[in-house]
């Protein structure tokens, strides 16, 4: 992969805003549901993040966990339920009585819903154990089809390297199917993997992310995004070191405090700061 040539379009602009609504609605609504997407939109977010896996009959659904236990009234492995069985589960009552009857949505339905609202998406491939290849292939194909006529394609991410490899096989052109590698701790050794997968971004936990990491990956043409940031001071500090994207559950507070970051797409990557510029010697711009 030629980093300089492949990274050039990203240097000109980044189609996604800085702030993403984590799992659609953060803590305000049952995660990974249509109600969650509605809350993200209602609070002014221009982009949402959510998780996708497969049912027993290979229907792409929104769900984070391997089981349905935590976020529905059912029990058992999610990929052991057919879509017809999953649609009978209540995926909202656990969050509050107001959401009783909310269902596990199909990925295709969510995509169309987002198109209607004009929202961008970060699609995290969250395969059930042992189903990385088939999940990634189907999700990547759906991303291509469902966003075929959309100017901004979804950003496809995963912690699973096998999943990203399978998705890349479906979508060999990085600019048509932008992908990001999810990790816990950022490390410069991840550069080779980013290059081999033809990713556009590295996504990591904020706790160990430093300005040096951001400068390093930016230098090599990769965006840096971080999860899940719910404190104002933390988010401000991450913006200060040039992080490109931040996922939050604290939707209402962050939307009020960082309103410009809800729709600030088209940003070039920040260069490493130069602190010894002789500003008096810099000629003023032409009027």
What does it look like?
With 287 residues, the protein is an alpha/beta fold. It is 32% helix and 15% strand. The protein has a nine-stranded mixed β-sheet with strand order 1-9-8-7-6-5-4-2-3. α5 (132-146) packs across α6 (161-170). The longest helix has 15 residues, at 132-146. Mean pLDDT is 90; it is low at 1-11 and 273-277.
Work out the helicity level. 25-40%
What is the overall number of helices? 10
Backbone shape = globular
**What's the helix-strand series?**
HEHEEHHEHEHEHEHEHEH
Q: How would you sum up the major sheet?
A: 9 strands, mixed
Strand arrangement within the widest β-sheet reads 1-9-8-7-6-5-4-2-3
- Regions with pLDDT < 50 over 5+ consecutive residues? 1-11, 273-277
Gyration radius, to the nearest Å? 19 Å
Structural class: alpha/beta
Q: What is the residue-mean pLDDT, rounded to a whole number?
A: 90
Beta content:
5-15%
């Amino acid at each position: 992969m030629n980093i300089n040539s492949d990274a050039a379009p990203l240097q000109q602009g980044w189609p996604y805003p800085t702030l993403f609504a984590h799992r659609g609605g953060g803590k305000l609504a049952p995660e990974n549901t249509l109600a969650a997407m509605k809350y993200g939109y209602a609070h002014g977010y221009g982009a949402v993040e959510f998780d996708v896996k497969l049912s027993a009959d290979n229907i792409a659904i929104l769900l984070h966990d391997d089981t349905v236990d935590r976020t529905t009234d059912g029990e058992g492995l999610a990929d052991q339920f057919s879509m017809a069985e999953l649609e009978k589960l209540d995926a909202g009552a656990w969050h509050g009585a107001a959401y009783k009857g909310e269902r596990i949505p199909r990925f295709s339905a969510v995509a169309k819903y987002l198109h209607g609202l004009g929202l961008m998406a970060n699609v995290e491939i969250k395969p059930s154990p042992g189903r990385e290849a088939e999940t990634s292939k189907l999700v990547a194909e759906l991303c291509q089809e469902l966003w075929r006529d959309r100017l901004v394609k979804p950003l496809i991410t995963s912690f699973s390297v096998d999943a990203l490899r399978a998705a890349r096989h479906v979508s060999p052109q990085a600019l048509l199917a932008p992908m990001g590698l999810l990790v816990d701790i950022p490390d410069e050794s991840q550069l080779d993997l980013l290059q081999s997968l033809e990713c556009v971004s590295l996504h990591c936990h904020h706790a160990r992310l430093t300005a040096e990491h951001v400068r390093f990956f930016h230098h090599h043409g990769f965006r840096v995004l971080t999860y899940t940031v719910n404190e104002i001071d933390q988010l401000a500090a991450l913006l200060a070191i040039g992080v490109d994207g931040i996922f939050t559950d604290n939707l209402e507070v962050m939307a009020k405090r960082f309103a410009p970051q809800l729709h600030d797409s088209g940003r070039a990557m920040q260069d490493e700061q130069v602190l010894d510029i002789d500003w008096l010697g810099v000629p003023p711009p032409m009027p």
